[in-house]
Amino acid sequence: MGRSSRTFRTFGKVMRRAMPALNLLFCILFFGMCVFGALVYEFERGTWMYQEYTATAGYAYMRVGQDGETMEPSPYTSIPASFWWFIVTATTVGYGDLVPTSTFGKLISALTMLGSLLVIAFPVSVFTTLWDEEFNKKSNRRESDVGTEVSEFGSDVGFLADVEGENGLRKEVAKLQEGQRRIEAMLIKLSKDN
Prior knowledge:
Low-confidence stretches: none
Shape: rod-shaped
Helix content: 55-70%
């Protein structure tokens, strides 16, 4: 199905042309994930202390909770676990399962959100531009096909001056009518595609 659909073929061409921008996006996101994930882990890890707040009492990293008063076990258990927070924040999904509570953690979150909006906007604009170029190529090709038909039709009209007799004239009129039907069909197809 994908090979026969013009839209899927266009999408495939655009994706191939957009690969450098997508590769750059993934590299920047990976770099940001490492840097911002490590920073938020450092600021949100909390203090190593004995806690009795969970079912299994023991030592854990504790931080100030979202209410600003109570202590809670830190959900940022490691730097790789903090990568999840970065991906959810950078893609603006925002599940809310990992929320920074410290001032520096909130600052890192704000920088992550603003920076990721700029980073993600770049490949989107590249993809949109490439899609528009590919679409315009197809429209220009169709319009040139119609132009060729019209010029052939015009050259056929010039031969009417050389036609002798009623039968010759009828044949030429039939040819012109057939050319007109082909042009109308192409114009209808062109208007449906746009």
